[in-house]
């Protein structure tokens, strides 16, 4: 079983893969917390408040994290 520290490291690595795509649109994403299967993130830059950020969050970020990190059930923005 993975420790919470290992899970967080895996989450950060997956987010690092997404950052260049967000940076292309002058945005970014910040890991906030992992709790009970939910990854909480903060959308930054142009992604903050963008009408498409929810689509990016669910179809991009959430799908990648669910594929790469065992235990991630969903992603929520704070």
Polypeptide structure, described:
It is built from two helices and three strands, in the order αββαβ. It is 47% helix and 27% strand. It has one domain: GMP Synthetase, Chain A, domain 3, CATH 3.30.300.130. The protein is globular and about 35 Å long. A three-stranded mixed sheet has the order 1-2-3, with helices on one face. The mean pLDDT is 93. The relative contact order is 0.21. By secondary structure, the protein is an alpha+beta fold.
- Sheet with most strands: 3 strands, mixed
CATH class: Alpha Beta
Order of helices and strands: HEEHE
Query: What is the number of beta strands?
Result: 3
CATH superfamily: Fe-S cluster assembly (FSCA)
| Outline | globular
The structure class reads alpha+beta
| Number of discrete domains | 1
- What name is given to the CATH topology? GMP Synthetase, Chain A, domain 3
In short:
The protein is of the alpha+beta class. It is built from two helices and three strands.
């Amino acid at each position: 079983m993975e420790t919470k520290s290992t899970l967080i490291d895996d989450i950060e690595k997956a987010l690092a893969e997404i950052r260049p795509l967000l940076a292309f649109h002058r945005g970014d994403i910040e890991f906030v917390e992992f709790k009970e299967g939910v990854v909480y993130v903060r959308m930054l830059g142009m992604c903050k408040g963008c009408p498409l950020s929810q689509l990016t969050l669910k179809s991009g970020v959430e799908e990648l994290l669910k594929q790469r990190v065992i235990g991630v059930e969903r992603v929520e923005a704070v």
